[in-house]
Amino acid sequence: MAQQPDYIIEMLHITKEFPGIIANDDITLQLKRGEIHALLGENGAGKSTLMSVLFGLYQPEQGIIKKNGEEVKIKDPNDATALHIGMVHQHFKLVDVFTVLDNIILGAETTKFGFLQKKEARRRVEELSERYGLKVDLDAKVEDITVGMQQRVEILKMLYRDNEILIFDEPTAVLTPQEIDELMATMREFAKEGKSILFISHKLNEIMEVSDRVTVLRKGKYIGTVNTCDTNPQELSNMMVGRPVQLVVEKGPSKPGDVVLEVEGLSVPSHLHKRDAVKNVSFNVRRGEIVCIAGIDGNGQTELIHGLTGLDKVSGGSIKLCGRDITRASIRRRGENMSHIPEDRHKHGLILDFTLEQNMVLQRFREAPFQHGGFINDAEVRKYAERLIDEYDVRSGQGPVTVVRSMSGGNQQKAIIARELDRDKPLVVAVQPTRGLDVGAIEYIHKQLVAERDAGQAVLLVSLELDEVMSLSDRILVMYEGEIVGELDPKTTTAQELGLYMAGATRQGKEATA
Hints:
Blueprint: E1 7-18, E2 21-32, E3 36-41, H1 47-54, E4 62-67, E5 70-72, H2 77-82, E6 85-88, H3 100-105, E7 111-112, E8 115-116, H4 118-131, H5 147-160, E9 165-169, H6 177-192, E10 196-200, H7 204-210, E11 213-218, E12 221-227, H8 233-241, E13 259-269, E14 276-286, E15 289-294, H9 301-309, E16 316-321, E17 324-325, H10 331-334, E18 338-341, H11 345-349, H12 356-360, E19 371-372, E20 375-376, H13 378-391, H14 409-422, E21 427-431, H15 439-454, E22 458-463, H16 466-472, E23 475-480, E24 483-488, H17 495-502, E25 506-507, E26 510-511
Parallel strand pairs: 3-10, 3-11, 6-9, 9-10, 15-22, 15-23, 18-21, 21-22
Antiparallel strand pairs: 1-2, 1-4, 4-5, 7-8, 11-12, 13-14, 13-16, 16-17, 19-20, 23-24, 25-26
C-alpha cells in the first residue's frame, strides 16, 4: 500500500497582493496530518489572508497548494468544502434570522425527491453536538444567542460537512475564559481523531498550551516555524514583533483625585427577558485611577456600559459625569466629557464603508479646524488622520483613504483607540480594548491607558481577560448576574479569588448560596 505523504496540506510560495500592499509575500506553510499548527503574527501580518487563500476566498498571484502531495485548485469555498477544508472566520458568517439548525445545514442540505430532510439533519447535528460537547439550542435564532454559542454553531457547521482540515481564525477573541478552556479541549479531541487544525491566534499562552508547531509571519513575510515544546512566549513575541516585548504592565501607584463618574442605584433593562440586566448598581471612578469591571460575559457588563454611554435607556438610578446629571442626556452630550472604546467595533465603533480618515473624525467633524462655514476641511482631516495612523501604527493598504471594511480586525481596533484617546476627555470608557490585538499592540495600548490615568483622566475598563484585569487596574469591581458582588484590590487579591467572585461562588460580606 502506498505510504501517505507527511503533509496533508502544503501552501508553497504563496503571494497575495491588494492595492498598495503585499499581504502574503512568498509564504510556505506545511500542515502535518493530525497536528494543531498555530499561525502567529501581528495585526495585518497576513494570517487571515493566507487562510482565506486556502479556503478559496482569495486567489493568489503566485504559488501552489497541495493536498496529500498532489496539487489542487481552490477557486472558491465550494472547492475547499469538496476537499474537506472548513473554516471558522473571525467575524462569523451566520444568518441572524435563521435558526441554529438552518445555519448548520445551509448549503449542505439533505433532500429527497426535492424535499428537505430536516429530521435526518437534526439527528446528525444532535449526534455531533453530543459527541464533541458542543451543546446548542437548534431551534433558537442566531440573533438571540451569545457569541460563544455562535462559535459552536460555526464549528458544528464544519463538522456537519465532514471536514478533516479545520481552520480557526482568532477563535478565542470573543470567548470567556471558561469557553476558551472548552474550545481547547475540543481542538485536542479533533486532533486525537486525526483531524488537522490550523489555528490563528495572538494569544501566546493559548498557543503554548494547545499547538504542536508554530509558524510566525511578520508584515506579510515568513519568519519561521518552530516546535512549540522548544520555544517560549518571549521568544515567540520577539519573532512576531521583531523586538523584545514587555509582557507585564509597568505602572506606578495611582493618585486618585476628584470623582469624575458617579453612578447611584443604576438599573438597566435586558433585551432578552423582562428582568433588569443591571440591578441597583452604585460605584464611582476618580481622576488618576483605572477602575476595572470584571466578570464572565453576559453578567450585565454590556448593558451597564450601554446605560452609561446612552446606547440604552436606564430604568432607574442616576449617572453624574463631572458633577452634571447625564442620566437622560443624549449620546452626543455625554460624548462631550467621555471617550468610548466600544465592545462591538463593527456595530458601535466604525462605519465600515467610510474611509479611515472619515472614521477618525466621526465625533469631531463639527469642530475647528475640521470644518469651516459648514464645509468639511479635507486637508485638515487628512493631516489629523495621518498623525494618528503614524502614532498608533494603524496599518492599511492605502493609508487614510483605505475603506475601513478592508482592514484587519486588529487595525480597525487600533483606529478606534487612536480616535478615542486623542479626544482627551475626563472619562475614558474602554470595553475589551485589546480584543484581537497582538502582544506588541497590547503593550502599546496598556501604556496609553496608564498614561491617560497618570495625566489625570478617569479610566473605566471592562475586560474578560484575567491577566489584563489583574495587571492594569487600580480597583476591581466584579459583576455577577447584574450586581456588583465585590470590590477588590489587585495588589492583594489572587486570580483564584477573583475567579470565585466572577463565578458567583463568593460575594463581599457573605458566601453566595448555591
